[in-house]
Amino acid sequence: MQSDTIAAISTALGEAGIGVVRVSGAQARDVVDRVFRLPSGRHARLPEHRGLFYGTVIDPFEERPIDECILLWMPGPRSYTAEDVTELQVHGGIRVVEAVLEAVLQAGARLAEPGEFTKRAFLNGRMDLSQAEAVMDLIRAKTDLARRSAWAQMQGRFSEVVRGLRRRLLELQAHVEVTLDYPEHDVEAVAAERVVAVGQSLVAEIDRLLEDARVGQILREGVVTTIAGRPNVGKSSLLNALLRRERAIVTDIPGTTRDVIEEYVNLRGIPFRLVDTAGIRETEDVVERIGVERSREMVVQSELVLLVLNGSEALTEEDIRLLAETRGRPRVVVVNKSDLPSAWEDAEIRAWTDGDPVVHVSAKSASGLGGLEEEMERAVLGGEVRTAEAAYMTNARQADLLRRARRDLEEAVHAASVGATLDVVAVQLQAAYGSLGLVIGEEAGEDLLDAIFSQFCLGK
What is an example of a GO molecular function annotated in this UniProt entry (predicted)? Predict the structure, then answer.
């Protein structure tokens, strides 16, 4: 129940300088009064305005001290949840923070559910649903680009766009309804023409938002990138070079890597999930054969393939086979060992690349990595760096609702263009309006809210 006073640890458990226990609700002042004492031993009389106090957290029953504390007092509605909120900032040891939480629960609060603080912020009107979802995007951001995009969405930039679409759609609905109710004031054909013109414009804007959803998914989840090639072409060396550290074992013995190795790396603001795989070749070794099968599976599952060839050795049948197997997939052909004399020309593989970029690097000396990173970025974003900068962190739920609204708008436009009655058009417009409303949480049901906020960390 929202009337309950809730509490949770809002910092990660572990040894740290500070640990925070957050309390929110109508009884937050009373709860803290039972567990906090000023240096004089007196109760802190929390004012009507915000305040910061130094003192001690105590066990509310035995009144034994637990730890010294900074108490942050934020009366509603000017707080994160728009309720009375207090934060007890203590030393960040695991047992210290847990003991403070236990004291607060004994004093009358209940343990918050995952995401319940942010859920209350939404229910109390402090933010809409898309802003609330952006909170977790901000926490989970792996790059500065993702962080900036999540921050902008948390400030309501995406919500403003959706509300603008809804306003235009509402005006269009009103025009259609007036024509239905008072046909003498307007001609149905004129209203239908307006539906077609405005509807097509709205569809185009939704298409732009859906393109942002693709970029937002990349910024949120990263790009699964498989480093593939035959044994001993330098796949593990390339992984280490991109990571700028020694992560994979590198030897001159073919087949050293027998399982997949995964690491995230931030390249030009885009999180890439690099997957180093076993060299793909025919082998009688049972363990290596399992690794080769996993490599082939990762190539199929990946969103980008870095196909590594050894430029210092003649092309082999395995190289040609891999060029054929990865054909048609988003890929960059990486010719490694450019610090050694070249054994072949790029023209020899041109028939297999279909215009895919070919980059020469030396994983050993790190030369050419800048060009490789540029091609990786271009393969993912098509070179549209500004699009990534401005992209909204649209998630799968929001994108699905946008697609639904787009479909309903297209049906309304089609109905209007073929002369269907306006009441049919009105039904489709209303459906699109409802889907856009759900994007920002208008009329969202309790089941949907529970599903969304259950994905949040405890204490947020």
Answer: GTP binding
Indicate the fold that domain 237-383 takes in CATH.
Answer: Rossmann fold (3.40.50)
Query: Mean pLDDT by 10-residue block, N- to C-terminus, for the chain (460 residues)?
Result: 84 88 93 92 85 92 91 92 94 92 94 91 88 84 80 86 92 83 64 87 91 76 84 84 64 45 80 75 51 70 87 88 86 90 87 88 88 88 54 78 94 87 88 92 76 77
Distance from C-alpha of 230 to C-alpha of 319, rounded to nearest angstrom? 7
Structure tokens at 306: 């870095």
If phi over 0 gives left and psi between -120 and 50 gives alpha, with beta otherwise, what is residue 125?
Answer: left
* Cis-peptide, bond into residue 330, ω within 30° of zero: no
Write out the two tokens for 427: 């039904």
Class of CATH domain 6-126: alpha beta
Q: Is 257 annotated as a binding residue?
A: yes
Q: Is 143 part of any known ligand binding site? A: no
The domain limits of the chain are 6-126, 134-218+395-441, 237-383
Q: What is the pLDDT of residue 286?
A: 47
Classify the phi-psi angles of 99: left when phi > 0, otherwise alpha if psi is within -120 to 50, otherwise beta.
Answer: alpha
Closest CA to 311 of 281, 349, 274: 349
Phi, psi (5° rounding) for residue 30? -65, -40
- Does 277 appear as a known binding residue? yes
Q: Is 234 annotated as a binding residue?
A: yes
279 annotated ligand binder: yes
Is 276 known as a binding-site position?
Answer: yes
Q: What is the architecture of the domain spanning 134-218+395-441?
A: Up-down Bundle (1.20)
